[in-house]
Amino acid sequence: MALNNILESVSNKLGIEEGVLKDLVERRTLRPMEYHGIGYLVFRREWKKFREGTTILVKDGEVRIVHGYPSIQRILLLKAIPRHFIDDVVVEEKLDGYNVRVVLFADQILAITRGGYICPYTTARIRMLYEEFLRNLFKKYGENLVVCGEVIGTENPYVQHYYPEAPTFDYYVFDIMRDRFFIPVTERNEIIDDVGLKRVRRLGVIDKNDLDSVKEIIRKLEREEREGIVLKDPKHRVKALKYTTSYTHFHDLELGMKYPFDEGRGFLFSRILREIWKIYEEGLSEEELEERAKRLGLSILKPAIDSIKLIEEGGAVYEEYIIRVPDIKVLDEFIEYMDKLGVHVALAQVTTLENGVVKARIIKMKETDLEYRRILRTGYSPLD
Ligand code: ATP
Q1: Does 197 share its domain with 293?
Q2: pLDDT tens, position by position, 324-335
Q3: pLDDT at 218
Q4: Looking at ligand 1, which atom is closest to the CA of residue 74?
Q5: N or C: which end of the chain has fewer CB within 10 A?
Q6: Rounded distance, CA 36 to CA 116, Å?
Q7: How far apart are the C-alpha atoms of 249 and 244, rounded to whole Å?
Q8: How many domains would you assign to the chain?
């Protein structure tokens, strides 16, 4: 679809001058994209009432705004909870995957990532699992709804975290938006249960002053090795908050520090900060602190050193994951899509399974590999 047609339709529908839209495209605030005959514009940063990650879909003159999923405020101290909320607080599990908004537009079920892109892979996988459930939801409760949820499991290009209940790929709904607002939690649950989709676990509904219950929930999540919680007002009168477990802080560091020159850098300070305040609020004994410090140290050092050893022994430092698509066309679309977003991946192995389903092993090289090789060769540090 020609960009001019997209801009004309959007301009007519939203009452924004075409010149302004063109300017936004030139300044790269808006990015034009296309998926299966649908043209769309992605807000790469916030602009006026449009959040980052907002997508405007266009087909045959029909225009639909899908607002971005808002950022969730993190808390470092649980004592922020009574100050933030009004009375009751819904405590939900925070799943470690990636955020996907599902909509129905031009008779197609589309999966939109946090950044606002229609991901051909996620769209295909969600359709394979839940196309009928989702169509039913939109038919019964309104085509203007936006289903927001987390894709979890290991078979995806973004976040590979193993969950026993979803080892490969699944979708758990955590919110439903109407326009740019969330519908109340009870209504959300009724809709999801009615159509048979899965939703994130509710871990409790507590009084905002009952921090003992929150602490108990966190201790349980630590034992179960889960990511953390998202706290919500039952009617979304105030914004949600998030809080994560020590398990996650160390787990993130372990993953990131396999690649210190890639994810490692960005992960280090934020995860350490989260853990510092958690330790402070927990009031650990000297002995417990030493134990925690040992875990922290190992989660940083061990993966980083293991990667050096890997190279020394003739290996390479790269990231790999498996994806599974309904047919080879989706695999091509996916590679092209990643390329367009500037993520260059290599196909390591492609296997055709029954019913034409294709399984592919994808490899992404890491900066760390190059940096480590340079250091091993010269002994010089790339940083002062
Ligand atoms: P931010 O929200 O600040 O933009 P981020 O994109 O780095 O941060 P996270 O820190 O992982 O994301 O936390 C927010 C994300 O958590 C949400 O965007 C959503 O994808 C995910 N999430 C998992 N479980 C839930 C849940 N129960 N409710 C809301 N979001 C959840």
Answers
A1: no
A2: 999 999 999 999
A3: 98
A4: 3
A5: C
A6: 16
A7: 7
A8: 4
Compute, in angstroms, the gap from residue 70 CA to the centroid of ligand 1. Answer: 9
Is the Cβ atom of 331 under 6 angstroms away from ligand 1?
no
For residue 298, give the CATH number of its domain. Answer: 1.20.58.2250
Residues 6+ apart with CB under 8 A from 50: 43, 65, 67, 68
Answer whether 239 contacts ligand 1 (Cβ < 6 A). Answer: no
Contact 91, 217 (CB under 8 A): yes
Residue 384 domain flag = no
Query: In this structure, is residue 149 part of a structural domain?
Result: yes
Residue-wise pLDDT for 28-51, tens only, equals 999 999 999 999 999 999 999 999
Q: Same domain for 25 and 85? A: no
* Ligand 1 pocket mutation, candidates 45, 46, 69, 72, criterion most atoms within 8 A of CB: 72
Domain containing 256 equals 247-312
CATH code, domain with 168: 3.30.470.30
- What is the rounded CA–CA span in Å between residue 323 and residue 155? 5
Question: Could you tell me the distance, in angstroms and rounded to a whole number, from the CA of residue 72 to the centre of ligand 1?
Answer: 6
The region, left, alpha or beta by phi > 0 then psi within -120 to 50, assigned to residue 328 is alpha
